Structure formats: C-alpha cells, structure tokens
Amino acid sequence: MAEKVQDKTVELMDRAADALEAFAIKLGALSTEYGPEVVDAGLCVALIDALSIVGSTVVILLAGIVLALNTKRSMAWSKRVEPEWDSPAAAWGHIVGVCSIILLSIGVIRLFNPWPWVGIIEPQLWIAKRILGL
To answer: Which pTM does this prediction carry?
Structure first.
C-alpha cells in the first residue's frame, strides 16, 4: 500500500515538474519576444493590485467609522425612546457597535500591513513576494 502511494506521489511530482518546465520554456520565449512590454505590464498589475488592497482598506475603515457614529446616534436614540438597556433599540445599538469594532479592527490591521505599501513604492518587491508565495 505504501509503495503504491509512493509511486503515485513520484508520478505526480514528475508531471508537475514537466508542466513547470514547459511553462518556463513558454515564459522564456514570451519574455524574449515581448520583454519590456511584459515587464511594464507586470509592474502596472502589481501596482494596481497593491492600490486595490489599500483602497479596500480605506473603504473598510470608512464603513467602520460610519457604523461607530451610527452606534453613538442609535444609543442616544434608544435612551430617549426606551431607557432600559435590554430593549430592542439598545440591542440594535450593541450589534452595530460590535460590527463597527470588528470593521475598524480589520481596517487598522490591513492598514498597517506593509506589503501593499511596498507594492505601491516598489512593485518589483511585491512581484517577488507573490512569486515566492510569502
């Protein structure tokens, strides 16, 4: 049983190596034919990818801020309408407050991720990171 699994694993690894070799040959041919244009396009793609991450982070932060302001307004409204803390209006305020904390936390974590900023400043490093799978 173990020999069959080992044989299948070796076979799959051989197929993967052959596929990677064929891909490298095709990529080499394309890079010599379309060299500078492909490099420029790759850098532009890396820059756009990094900008989209930063842009979505800004949207997440703005949504968190809007929800936090809505929580403040909702809690003030619930105190006027139903002063008890176990009312449905207060429960809604708590739910929105938790959602705003989650969104703000995600936004801050993503904002301080250095890789999108590296992708904006040095797209070559961003591409290297993506190729290496880090």
So the answer is: 0.62
